[in-house]
Structures are given as C-alpha cells and as structure tokens.
Amino acid sequence: MKSFFILLLLLAPNLFSQSLDNNSSIDQNLTNKIDTLEASLNKEPSIYEKLLSLDYIHSNISHKILVFSSNLDHTVKGWVEDDTNTTSKEVIKSIKEEKDAYQLYSIVNLYDDFFKDETYLSTSNNSYIRLRWGIEQNQEEGFSFLNNIRVNLRLPQTEDALYLFIGDDEDEQTKTINKDTQDKPTSIGVKYVLSNLDILNASIFGGFRGITNPFIKLRVQYPIAFRYLLFRPVQYVEYALEDEFKEETQFYFDHLLASKKDLVRLALSRYTQTSLEGMNYSAQLSYLSTIKHGVGIQVYTGFQGRTGLNTTEPANTKYNITPKVGIYNYSSGIIWKEQFFKKYLFYELQPLVEFAQQYDYNANYIFRAHIELYFGDI
Questions:
Q1: What is the per-residue pLDDT for 319?
Q2: Contact 297, 262 (CB under 8 A)
Q3: Would you call 376 helix, strand, or coil by DSSP?
Q4: Count of CB atoms within 10 A of residue 368's CB?
Q5: Over the chain, what is the mean pLDDT?
Q6: 3-state DSSP assignment of residue 330
Q7: Does 41 score more than 70 pLDDT?
Q8: Fewer CB within 10 Å, N side or C side of the chain?
Q9: Which residues, at least 6 apart from 181, have a Cβ–Cβ distance to it below 8 Å?
Q10: CA atoms of 117 and 111, how far apart (whole Å)
C-alpha cells in the first residue's frame, strides 16, 4: 500500500502538467482563431465589396457575431473552424462573382459616358462643356431646332465639392422619353456634391431658371451591383418659386448579355408636381451595343402615361381628341452616335416613330440629327 502512494505521488505532477499543457494549447488555438477573425473584421473592404453592398453588409455583421460569440463561450470553436476553413471552390466562386459585377459596372459606365445621357451628366464629377446643335423633322409638328448646352465646372479651392452648372435634367430636350416641347429658360447655378456618403451619389443643386424662378433640388442615386444586374434607384426632390414642388423617382436595371459588351436596360420613371393632377409615369426598354471604337447604337421602345388630367381641352385641333388618363404615347426608335474628324466631335442620328393620343394614335414619323462638341475627359 505504501509503495502505491509513493508511485501516485511521482506520477501526479506529470498528469497535471499534461492536462494544463493541453488546456493551454486549446486556449492558444482559440485565441489565434479569434485574432484571425478580428484581423479579418478590421480589414478595409475593397471598392468591389462596397459595390456588392448587400453581401458586404451581411459579411460584416456575420463576422461581428462570430467574434462576440467567441468571447462569451468556448463552444463556438466548432463554428469558428467552419467559418475560417473556406474551401477553394467557394473562394474561386466569390472572386468570379466580384469580377463579373465589376465588369458589368464598368460596361454600364462606358455606355453612359459615350452617350452622355442624364445618368452620366448629373452624376459626373468631371468638369465638362457639352454643346449640341440639332434639328427635328416631325410629320405632325413640322421642322424645329434642338439646341442645348450643358456645363459642369469644378470651382477651385473647394475640395471637389462645388461646381458651376449650366443646364440640368429639366433642360434636356432630346430625351427619348418625357420630351417636353415647352420652352424654358436654361438653368444656371451651383452644385454641391455630398462626397462623404461612400457609394451613395448625392448632389444638391441651387440656382435659377430665369431671373424670377429660383430653385433648389436634391438628387440621390444608390447603385447596387449583382453578378449580372446593376440596379440604380434615383430620387429627385425639387422646389422652385414658380413651379413649386416636384419629386421624381427613376429605376434603372442594366443586364450584361453573353457577349460581355452588349447591354439591355429597363428604365422606369414616375413623378408628381404641384401644378399637375395625379402622377405621370413612363417606361423604356433599350438595347445598347457598339460596332467598333467610337460608334454606339441604342434601340429603344417605351411609353408614357398619366393618372390625372389638368384639362379636357384637345391638345390638337386637327384630330380634336379629348385627353384621357392612362398611356398617352408609345414610341420606338434608334440612336446612332459616332465620333468623327476629332475625338471630341460627334454626330448623332435618331429616327423614331410615335403613336400619341393627341394624334388619335396615328403613326407620327420623326427624324432628329445632332452635332455634339464635347470639352472634357473623353
């Protein structure tokens, strides 16, 4: 018996030492995993992760939950291992999705930049001057000129926050939807860019549309990129002394086709205004492509509608059609734009056909031609 106690005393330190070493090793491994998670959490996300904002927010919150749980209970060890042991297939899939989303975003920006439509002109922080001289031959309304100027100049010593602008979205007379034939004074004023909102694109415009009509306007755009779809909601809120309150919502859905260079775009819009009854709305489906460098083509079809009427008087005495709520205009056309002579000089041809309620939905054939001179980054 005495020999048994002596043997137990000799082995006890080794047993306790081994147990302590094992516990110490487990704690050390867990500490290393927690440190790895915290380092991953503190890593600054790339612009592509921010662009894929839904995935970024989900990943960020998930990591915080894992770190918090690890500090509360050592049983999270299994969860941490599952989270950190990402398979090579999952890594490759994540990289491919990020690459596809970035490619889509880049292609959309290239088309917006080339066609210089409202999605580019209102969001660009580059200084530019764009002059357009145009003509329109309208079967029902005859011949007219379509001249337009847009200016966006960065003011010095303002940290890229203040810009002088001439012309805005209300002055665009060559839009394929929501064309307004009413003559309006060209807008002029100052734009303030809210640059501290990450990928949220927001600007405040303040200026005049004529001497007696000051206005202030907020424009907000938030791009959300998925692997094959770029979704861009846009919101305008405006108050002008003469026109009073106006708000407009636009949705752009851009899908990259299998060719990796052609786009399909769905544009939806609706707006309300103090001087208008009800709501006006529109939709346009477009196909955008390029044949070679410096040449772009856009094929589109769309419609416009309204939910209220300001008057029941016929807009055209020839047809004497009483205005009605609902869709009042259908249109389809092609835009061909090409650089020529110099890289800053463009010509644009646009044949289209409209079926308007005021003309009893008879086909109205229209042809537009423009010369565009663009000073700025091309």
A1: 85
A2: no
A3: coil
A4: 20
A5: 78
A6: strand
A7: no
A8: N
A9: 141, 173
A10: 9
3-class DSSP assignment, residue 190:
strand
Name the pTM for this structure: 0.72
In the chain, where are the structural domains located? 20-85, 105-375
What's the CA gap between 112 and 201, in Å, rounded? 15
Q: Are 349 and 369 in contact (CB under 8 A)?
A: yes
Indicate the residue type of 150.
Answer: R
What separation in angstroms does the CA of 6 have from each of 9, 11, 12? 5, 9, 10
H or E stretch at 322:
none
Please enumerate in sequence order all residues whose Cβ is within 8 A of that of 335, keeping only pairs 6 or more positions apart, or say none. Answer: 115, 176, 296, 297, 298, 299, 300, 348, 349, 350
CA distance 176 to 371: 17
Query: How many CA atoms lie less than 13 Å away from 81 in the CB half-sphere?
Result: 7
Do residues 310 and 278 make contact, with C-beta atoms less than 8 angstroms apart?
A: no
Pairing outcome for strands 142-145 and 363-375: unpaired
CATH architecture for residues 105-375: Beta Barrel (2.40)
Per-residue pLDDT, 107: 87
Q: Dihedral (C-alpha) 118, 119, 120, 125: value to the nearest 10 degrees?
A: 110
Other Cβ atoms closer than 10 A to 145: 9
- How far are the Cα atoms of 51, 168, 350 from residue 189, in angstroms, in the given order? 31, 10, 31
